[in-house]
Specification:
This protein is an all-beta fold. It is built from no helices and eleven strands. The chain is globular, with a radius of gyration of 13 Å. It starts with a strand and ends with a strand.
């Protein structure tokens, strides 16, 4: 059974940094694409960053230059390094694998102004 567990969220001041982790089990992680998404109340979940099995990355325009997605296949883990955080980055962050489609439980990120 595929499971994803996120960690690393918390409360940080604007301009600060956090690193989120997403650890997978029950899947051949090295051949899996992984995405980080975020959601705020009343809004649709949006893609933040995506990394393919080959290491190619893609970012939402709103986080380009501030966030970095990376992966460690030996640890079955994908990271999201978030720098220069802004209050508008406040959301619940989820990781996702598309095949089979699975979501983690989410981790709250709150950025105070």
């Amino acid at each position: 059974q595929v499971q994803l567990v996120e960690s690393g969220g918390g409360l940080v001041q604007a301009g600060g940094s956090l690193r989120l982790s997403c650890t997978a089990s029950g899947i051949i992680f090295s051949i899996t694409n992984v995405g980080w998404y975020r959601q705020t109340p009343g809004k649709q979940r949006e893609l933040v960053a995506y990394i393919t099995s080959g290491g190619s990355t893609n970012y939402a325009d709103s986080v380009k230059g501030r966030f970095t997605i990376s992966r460690d296949n030996a640890k079955n883990t994908v990271y999201l390094q978030m720098n220069s955080l802004k209050p508008e980055d406040t959301a619940v962050y989820y990781c996702n694998v598309p095949n089979p489609n699975r979501w983690g439980q989410g981790t709250q990120v709150t950025v105070s102004s």
